[in-house]
Each structure stands twice: as C-alpha cells, then as structure tokens.
Design a protein that fits this description.
The chain is built from twelve helices and 17 strands. The chain is of the alpha+beta class. The longest helix has 19 residues. It starts with a helix and ends with a helix.
C-alpha cells in the first residue's frame, strides 16, 4: 500500500470512528464557527435579537417585539442622553454632581453615594456603565433633567424619536415597576444609537477600575468584556421580574454586532445566549462597503443647456451586511437619465448605481449633478453668436 493510500485510509478510519462515537472532527480553526451556526437554535432566553450595528439589519431574532421588563439595560438610554449632552457641550465630564436624598435611597446595585456627596460626571458614568450602580444613574438623571421623573419623560421622548415603539420607561434604573417595559428589538435600536458615540466604549469596555481614590472597587457586570474576543460593551440587567438580560456589543474585522437577550433564567445563561448569537453572526456574515470610486461614469449630456455636459457627484457609501462568500456574487449597474433636459439643478439626481447580489437588488446609490446647467435663452445665444463673430 502506498503512503498516500495509507494516509487516506487513516483519515477515513478516523472519520468513521469519530462519527460512531460522536466525536467532532475539527480542522483549521473553522469548527467553532460551524458549531455555533448549527447550535444557534439553543438560546436560553425568552427573547433575543442579533443586529449589525451600522446598518441596523437584524440577522437573527425570536420574540423580538415581546414586551418585557428590561432591568438595568434601561441605563443604555441614560448613557445615550448623557453622551448626546456631552457632545453638545451642555454637560462636561468634569462637572461635579451633588447626591440627593432620592439618589441615595436607591436599592439594588450601588456605589453607596452619601447625601450631599459630590462626584464628577466622569466617575458617575463609570459607575453606571461598569458597575450598573442605581444611585449613580439617578444622580446623572437628576443632573440632566432636574428630577428623575422629568428625565424619564426625556427618555421616553428619545425612545419615540428612535422608533422604539414598544418601550415605556418609568424610571432611570430599570428596577421593576408597573409598566416599565421594552423589547429586545428596541434595546438593540438604542444600543446601536449609543455606540455611535465612540467614547462610551472607553467606559463600557472597562473590566476593573475604582472610584474615590481606590476605596471603591468596580468590576464590570458584563463578563464578556473580559472573556469574549472583541467585546466592548454594553450593559447587563437583572431583576426578579426581568430575569437576566444583556445587550452585548462586539467588533471583529470591521463589523460590529449587537446581541440582546432578555429573560434568561440565570446570569450564566444570558452570557451563553449572547456569545452564541455573536459567534453565529461573526461566522456567517461580513460587512461589504462598495467602492464607488471604481465606477467609471463620464459627464452626462444635457439637452438645451448652456453647457452640453454636466459633471457628476457620488454620495458616500453605506456599509451593508452580506453572508460570507457572497462578495464574489455582487455586480453593479449604472443607469443615467437618457434625455436630460436643462435646466439642471446642482445636486439633482441624474442617475443611479445599483448593486445586485445575484439577481436581487442589494443597494442603490443616487448619482447627482455636481453643477448647475441653465437653460438656453435668447441673451445667452446672442452673446455666444456675437463672440463668435468678433473672434
């Protein structure tokens, strides 16, 4: 028997042995992706969503619109409103916040703020993002809204603006309250909005830190920050009414995924749920960004215009999510207005670029007129004729 035949026989025997005894045959680091995709149905959560952050495309979902208590993932909205105010310049990280009796009275997880104690916005944000401290979140809410109640109104208003149609906030902490409800889809929507503010990841990705000159230790309640490759946030939540919840964000190879799981029985199950969803997403999908600069589009003819051609301008591209391996099946087609008549306004749509995945439309990008083309009129024609005669 030749060496090649012996090797092939050995591989075949190994495969049969593994098949009989249920041992997986693994090779080239691919096995984790395959296993994740095959076991995706085993998600120990009442509802979940897997979303690609930049496009908002949902890759996997179950009971995504079922209203449930969101627990402390509520604080994603608190942090979103804070980040927006920080970028607007109406609040600063160095601002000092004084603890009220109301903030001091919060139960659950806290950093034990004393009435009258002052702490910077920076430290309160850290306590909220890392330790999920209820007293810190309420202190921030009061600083932004005057009272927690007034701030909750702002939370609900922002939720409406984001299209979170199944969410009603009753407090800033996520502590169980009648009517305090959200959904996995709505949590994913506000998570995607929050991580547009890159600075939040400096807080949500912290594993361990401290406050009060090292006297108060902080450990991230999101264990995936330490143990899951690429995880950079975002927020856990646990109450008797909500069970164990999590909005987990992770970035690999330029793609950011958001896995929201709600209603798991244990903390361990929520991390399993989120990591399984993330594994599946990274194994199965990739981000594709068309390069419009590769499109060779000449100037477009204009009829009855003071100029016969109009220059074109292309928009910025938007990334899209495709299944891995599909990039080779993407084609593009350029269409322009065949009989473009003057006048042509600057910024007017004069055509489009269509990208196809096989025969399905993947994306459309408009082609704009870069400059204005006025219509022919008598003064313009007369001047052109005069110039020609005297030249």
């Amino acid at each position: 028997m030749t060496i090649t035949k012996r090797i092939l026989s050995g591989i075949l025997a190994l495969g049969i042995f593994c098949s009989v005894f249920g041992i997986p045959v693994l090779a080239d680091g691919v096995e984790e992706d395959v296993v994740a995709a095959q076991s995706i149905g085993d998600i120990p959560a009442k509802s979940y969503v897997l979303m690609e952050a930049s496009s908002g495309k949902v890759l996997m979902e179950q009971n995504a619109d079922e209203q449930m208590p969101p627990a402390s993932i509520t604080k994603i909205m608190v942090m979103l409103l804070l980040m927006e105010r920080l970028e607007q310049g109406t609040i600063h990280m160095e601002d000092m916040v004084t603890t009220s009796e109301h903030a001091n009275s919060m139960g659950g997880t806290q950093i034990w703020l004393e009435v009258g104690e002052t702490m910077s916005v920076h430290d309160l944000l850290k306590a909220t993002a890392v330790n999920s401290a209820n007293d810190a979140a309420v202190a921030l809410a009061e600083y932004m809204g005057g009272t927690e109640e007034a701030f909750v109104e702002q939370m609900n208003q922002r939720a409406k603006e984001l299209g979170m149609n199944n969410t009603t906030f009753k407090n800033a902490t996520g502590l169980d309250a009648d009517g305090h409800l959200s959904t996995a889809r709505d949590v994913a929507i506000m998570s995607a909005e929050l991580i547009k503010h890159e600075k939040i990841k400096e807080y949500s990705s912290i594993w361990m830190d401290s406050l009060r000159d090292g006297k108060t230790g902080l450990t991230n309640t999101n264990k995936l920050v330490r143990y899951y490759e690429g995880c950079n946030g975002l927020k856990t939540g646990t109450t008797d009414g909500a069970g164990s919840c999590l909005s987990a964000t992770a970035t690999r190879n330029g793609m950011t995924l958001i896995a929201v799981t709600m209603g798991s029985a244990t903390s361990k199950e929520r991390f399993k749920s989120a990591s399984t969803l993330l594994d599946y997403g990274f194994a199965s999908y990739e981000v594709y960004t068309p390069d419009l600069s590769q499109q060779e589009i000449p100037e477009i003819p204009v009829s009855n215009g003071q100029q016969s051609l109009v220059e074109i301008e292309l928009p910025s591209t938007v990334s899209m999510v495709i299944s891995k391996g599909d990039q080779t099946n993407i084609t593009s087609e350029v269409t322009i207005i065949e009989d473009l008549q003057a006048p042509v306004k600057q910024g007017q749509e004069v055509g489009k670029i269509i990208y196809y995945l096989n025969s399905d439309v993947l994306a459309e990008y408009p082609i704009y007129a870069k400059n204005q083309i006025n219509q022919l009129d008598f003064p313009f024609v007369f001047l052109k004729l005069l110039l020609k005669l005297i030249s």
